[in-house]
Amino acid sequence: MSLDLLSMKLIRNVGHSMLKMQCRHMSDTGKNVDRLALPASTVIRGKEYASDDWTNVTPRILKRIDAKLHLQNHHPLCIIKRAIVEHFYSAYRVGMGPVFTVLDDISPVVTVQQNFDSMLIPKDHVSRKKQDNYYINKDVILRAHTSAHEADLIKAGFDAFLTIGDVYRRDTIDPTHYPVFHQFEGVRLFSSHELTTGVESEEVSLFEDGYETEWKQPCHTLEASKLTEYDLKQTLENLVLHLFGKDVEYRWVDAYFPFTHPSFEMEIKVEGEWIEMLGCGVLRQPIINTAGADQKIGWAFGLGLERLAMKLFNIPDIRYFWSGDQSFLSQFSGVDEKNFRDLHFRTMKSNQPLIMNDISFWVNDEENYDSNDFYDLVRNFGGDLVENVHLFDVFKHPDNGMTSHCYRVFYRHLTRPLEKAELAEIDANIKKTLLDEFNIKPRWV
Q: What are the φ/ψ torsions at residue 159 (nearest 5 degrees)?
């Protein structure tokens, strides 16, 4: 959760200078570096970044950076964002103004230090993997969470803020996952006086030289930790009641995050099923101390706007948010942060035929292969025509020890039938790139 305040200026122009490489690129560890053409440099909002063995961001992803769906009037993500902001503005005030500052247009380009180190994510943590992130180079990344701005905002003097923005992760392909999605994060810090305001007791001591338990960090007193937890949960329970109404069922589940302790997830019941809606917890004190607010304790939460909007409005496919389809967007015309609960959304599901295609191959180096590389390859050529990709068979040959992966790719356009020729071209490009740049042996020939 870090931020270069200068990056808050709006700089346009996304460019991408591509250098076509004729061979498969390997890092010094022997791992495949970029399955697609390796860029000589990447230009984002007017700044050029040199490429290296870690570079794996693609032009298709870079085109999404200036979309800013959460800032587009009458887009469902913008409506939900404004509904949450309106709730925080009206419910939490000091004097004549709101307690929380809103920052919703911070550049998604951050350093690896901001994205991981500032949040106490260990060097060997799985979330740092190249296969799970979009690296511009070994030092710079498209943020994987809005938490990347947290430490810098605290250092800049903010002690209660809401950060909203697009985040980027390489992931599976299905109706609920997209490589770009939007997070809404909240952080609030308290002094001893602020934490106990309204509590019928004297100011509590925030810190002690103790030990960690399931209820607190070693530097926090139990009372301070419990008061912070109470304020956090009360804040989020009020938010969920505001969004879903007084009859919503919710529950708290213990969780683990590197940057909070204790940590929790909130689940709500939707159509008889418990669904995770957000993660939260008491901020790890070293994050706060390093940012220069060592006399305060605080909490943080984060939620996904797409997940929230899909549940609120019964949207069946995450691709709709990016489609520009007027039959979808027109339903939100006239809807705002005050009347969104009155929307009677017409459930949409593409009635176009689903087309399936299988791609199978032997993996020559299983240790350095990751399915996310294949998913990103499919996304690069198939784009939003791809509805789902399913790894439905993995087989290890008993004689040579090689492993076969078989994927089923599901194609369906949201509004029109697909043509055989365009799918054949996509399939051919996927297979050619697999042969040229992946360490595999095809099974389709």
A: -120, 0
